[in-house]
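Re: [ENG-882] Designed sequences occasionally contain unexpected residues at chain ends

Forwarding the minimal case from QA. Structure tokens:
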């Protein structure tokens, strides 16, 4: 009987930083500016041409009036498929949870937590044996409300949709050989 686990494959453990810039669609027809900064941990499976990740971002959303804003702490987990060697194409999906931090200039009541998903598409480049950079387009969609607005005594619940470009650089903190590579030594 053949048992396969993540430990059977070569892995690169990586940690990095990211910056993102984009737009948030809060409700028709409002769009707001989005800036993110965060850290990312990746586990790259070289033989499977894939990776898993967890990332932690602080989101700053500023309204078009530049007087309203809100912040979230967002944790995302997901996986990517990666095609190519030094320069590689990346496509991935993930789930996220947001924790509301604070807001200014909004009448709405923000939910303490909200949940959503994400899709990303982009390119990565190995700068050296220890560093690589990524340029990604990300689309995030909330499937639970981010905030609630009271209009004429009734509640309207709103999620958000985000479109952003992220750039990041990561450091490879460790390489693990696959069991196959270890057995052939």
């Amino acid at each position: 009987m053949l048992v396969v686990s993540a430990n059977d494959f070569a892995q690169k453990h990586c940690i990095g930083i990211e910056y993102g810039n984009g737009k948030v669609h809060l409700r028709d027809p409002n769009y707001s500016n989005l800036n993110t900064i965060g850290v990312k941990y990746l586990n790259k499976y070289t033989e499977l041409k894939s990776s898993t990740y967890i990332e932690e971002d602080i989101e700053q959303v500023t309204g078009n009036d530049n007087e309203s804003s809100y912040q979230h702490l967002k944790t995302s987990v997901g996986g990517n498929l990666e095609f190519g060697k030094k320069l590689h194409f990346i496509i991935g999906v993930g789930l996220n949870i947001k924790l509301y931090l604070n807001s200014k200039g909004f009448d709405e009541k923000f939910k303490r937590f909200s949940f959503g998903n994400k899709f990303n598409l982009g390119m990565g480049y190995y700068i050296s044996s220890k560093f690589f950079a990524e340029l990604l387009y990300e689309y995030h969609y909330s499937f639970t409300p981010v905030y609630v607005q009271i209009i004429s005594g009734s509640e309207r619940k709103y999620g958000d949709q985000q479109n952003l470009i992220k750039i990041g650089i990561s450091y490879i903190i460790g390489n693990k050989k696959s069991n196959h590579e270890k057995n052939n030594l």
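QA comment: On inspection the terminal residues look reasonable. The chain is about 5% helix and 70% strand. Proposing we downgrade this to a documentation issue.
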